[in-house]
Amino acid sequence: MSSSARWRHASCAAFTVLALLCTSALAGCSHACAPQGWPSSLRVQLTGAVDEVADVGLCVGDVCVPGEGEDPDPALLDLSGVTEHRAGNWEFTMLSTPAELTIRTYTAEGDVVTDTAVELEWHRVGGTARCGGPHAAVVTVEV
């Protein structure tokens, strides 16, 4: 092999190694976050006269889920779902993490038992600090 051929071969090999090093180094610098929403959970723990409560609603401003005495707007159902886990504990799933809201409790007849304004402390329970992720909060309401 001639010296110019060796030089081209060595130059090509060096360039390939340099390109691989740069690619792997830069790959660690770039981190794209997937554009998506995460379901966050809010646990409402009721204390006191829990037996009086047949339903629990979340209100932000004048909008409550579920709606009072009627089927809630389907658009609101996409934003929040509720499951009663056991007496006095209600778990809500939502795509937002409001700083404050009102917890409204209802009797089986639909009468309002309590209307309690609360401030929520959300804690990230998944994902990353950079890209975000699901959050959880717990609040206690006296009935």
Spans of at least 5 consecutive residues with low confidence? 10-15
State the separation between the terminal residues, measured CA to CA. Answer: 90 Å
The portion of residues assigned to helices is: 10-25%
Number of separate helices: 2
Q: Largest sheet, described in full? A: 5 strands, mixed
The first-level CATH class name: Mainly Beta
Q: Write the element-wise H/E pattern from the N-terminal end onward.
A: HEEEHEEEEEE
Please state how the strands of the largest beta sheet are arranged side by side. Answer: 4-5-1-9-8
- Assembly state here? single chain
Quickly count the domains.
Answer: 1
Average per-residue pLDDT, rounded, comes to 76
Shape annotation = elongated
The gyration radius over C-alpha positions equals 27 Å
The CATH architecture comes to Sandwich
Structural class of the secondary elements? Answer: alpha+beta
Task: Say what the CATH topology is.
Answer: Immunoglobulin-like
β-strand number:
9
Q: Strand share of the residues?
A: 35-45%
Can you tell me about this structure?
With 143 residues, the protein is an alpha+beta fold. It has one domain (40-142): Sandwich (Immunoglobulin-like), CATH 2.60.40. It contains two helices and nine strands; from the N terminus they run αβββαββββββ. It has helices at 3-27, 74-79; strands at 40-47, 55-60, 63-65, 80-86, 89-94, 100-106, 112-119, 123-124, 135-142. Strands 4-5-1-9-8 form a five-stranded mixed β-sheet. The longest helix has 25 residues, at 3-27. It is elongated. It starts with a helix and ends with a strand. The model is unreliable at 10-15 (pLDDT under 50).
